[in-house]
Design brief:
Layout (H helix, E strand, L loop, with lengths): L6 H23 L9 H4 L2 H16 L3 H38 L3 H19 L1
Helix pairs in contact: 3-4, 4-5
Length: 124
């Protein structure tokens, strides 16, 4: 590092050092990728933000109106998430049925395997 004089050499040395640190951390810690959300869950993030804001209002001012507001927003968020999940699962089941009807066995079993894998992940 002491021999580096210009900015380009310093930046290049930093990039290589950064890559070495990342690869050694991945090897030693065996870092995993972040879990991906389900497609139906992404539509519910707005409701979760509203729920969080309502809870923060209740924490700052624990009046009865804020408690009622927080309970209403919680129920709405839960209801919306439940409905989105049901719609998603219904669409997946219909996709399985159409693959079964048209005898598209490859897609049918790949969808079944993904669904069974998710179920086994949840039960662990």
């Amino acid at each position: 590092m002491e021999n580096l004089s210009d900015n380009k050499n310093i930046n290049r040395a930093w990039k290589t050092m950064k890559e070495y640190i990342k690869t050694s951390a991945e090897e030693s810690l065996s870092l995993q990728e972040l879990k991906q959300h389900k497609p139906w869950f992404d539509e519910c993030l707005g409701f979760l933000d509203q729920r969080k804001q309502a809870k923060m209002q209740w924490i700052h001012d624990p009046s009865q109106s804020n408690v009622d507001n927080w309970n209403n927003v919680r129920c709405d968020a839960r209801r919306h998430s439940r409905n989105k999940k049901k719609a998603y699962m219904k669409a997946k089941i219909e996709e399985l049925e159409t693959n079964s009807k048209i005898k598209n066995i490859r897609n049918l079993f790949s969808l079944l395997n993904r669904a069974c894998f998710r179920v086994t992940q949840l039960s662990l």
